[in-house]
């Protein structure tokens, strides 16, 4: 809130004693006569900008000091296999045309060696036939967010841009249903960790669901 009158800053300081003045840079020559008060601790930075047209007041940029998690942490990338129906059919055909007897040697009947050769061949066929794509993982990604949920979010955005209230209401309903299904599937996956005796994976999934994490000391 700007205040260019004499004594305005002193009056504001008395009236807003529990608030903090965030404009700390000069706004008119070497004086700070524009005020912006807030009760948020460590809320803003004060950066001067050039004045507009012939104004004798500088502009003030007050960006938030808080940096979102998605900006504080780096983006990680990983490669995943795209197991489409066509790719699986091609892989199945490759295995059907394979002469598996070549992996058996009468002189070497060691089961471990045979298993190693067969596994290496299967991995080779998989790398050659199943396509691979790179996906980006952001810090605020939720583990239960699937491609169905993302599609429902995009449908909601399209309905909002078109201004169709009926389609927007239906898209919101479908999005809620998709989120419930995604969380339920992820919950079942976490519970399966308990049945498999994987306590580490179980607690990792529980922390992701509840949002639990270590708090920084103030």
Automatic annotation (TrEMBL):
It comes from the Eukaryota. This is Endonuclease/exonuclease/phosphatase domain-containing protein. It comes from Merluccius polli (Benguela hake).
């Amino acid at each position: 809130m700007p205040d260019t009158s004499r004594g305005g800053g002193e009056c504001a300081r008395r009236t807003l004693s529990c608030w903090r003045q965030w404009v700390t840079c000069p706004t008119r020559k070497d004086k700070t006569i524009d005020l912006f008060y807030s009760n948020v601790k460590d809320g803003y930075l004060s950066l001067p900008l050039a004045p507009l047209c012939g104004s004798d007041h500088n502009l003030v940029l007050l960006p938030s000091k808080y940096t979102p998690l998605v900006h504080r942490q780096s983006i990680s990338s990983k490669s995943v296999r795209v197991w489409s129906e066509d790719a699986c059919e091609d892989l199945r055909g490759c295995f059907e045309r394979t002469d598996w007897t070549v992996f058996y040697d009468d002189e070497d009947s060691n089961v471990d060696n045979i298993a190693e050769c067969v596994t290496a061949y299967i991995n080779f066929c998989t790398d050659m036939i199943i396509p691979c794509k790179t996906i980006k993982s952001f810090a605020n990604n939720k583990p239960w967010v699937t491609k169905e949920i993302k599609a429902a979010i995009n449908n909601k955005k399209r309905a909002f841009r078109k201004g169709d209230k009926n389609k927007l209401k239906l898209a919101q309903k479908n999005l809620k249903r998709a989120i419930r299904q995604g969380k339920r599937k992820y919950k079942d996956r976490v519970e399966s960790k308990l049945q498999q005796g994987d306590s580490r994976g179980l607690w990792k999934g529980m922390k992701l669901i509840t949002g639990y994490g270590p708090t920084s000391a103030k």
